[in-house]
Amino acid sequence: MNQERPTEVDDSEFMDIARDPEHFTQSRARSLCFWKGLARYYSVTAGGQTDRNAAWYYPHPSPLARRIKHHVAFGNGVVVEEAAPQVKQ
Q: Which domain holds residue 51?
C-alpha cells in the first residue's frame, strides 16, 4: 500500500464549531487518521433531525494538521449554509 504523506491540510472543509454549538452533541465514536491524529465525532441536529456521527474534529492534531484544531468537518450528507443575519426592528 503506497500512501503519500501530505504536506498541508486543505482546511476548506472545516468550520469553527464555536459558531453554532447548539447543533452538536458529543459522540463516543473515534477514528484514527495516520497523519492528522485521533478524530472525535459529533452528532448534528438541525431542522428537528439528528444525523449521528456526521461531524468530526481533531482535538490534538499532528503538527502538519495544526490549522484544523478547533474546527469541525462534515460528512453523511450534511450541508452547512450561512444563515441570514437577524435584523432587529
A: 22-74
Whether pTM exceeds 0.70: no
- Say if CB 8 and CB 64 are below 8 A apart: yes
Q: Is residue 56 part of a domain?
A: yes
8 A C-beta contact, residue 81 and residue 47: no
CB 75 within 8 A of CB 54: yes
- Look at residue 22 in the predicted model and tell me its pLDDT: 77
CB atoms within 10 A of CB 7: 6
65 and 36 in contact (C-beta within 8 Å)?
yes
For 54, other C-beta atoms within 10 Å of its C-beta total 21
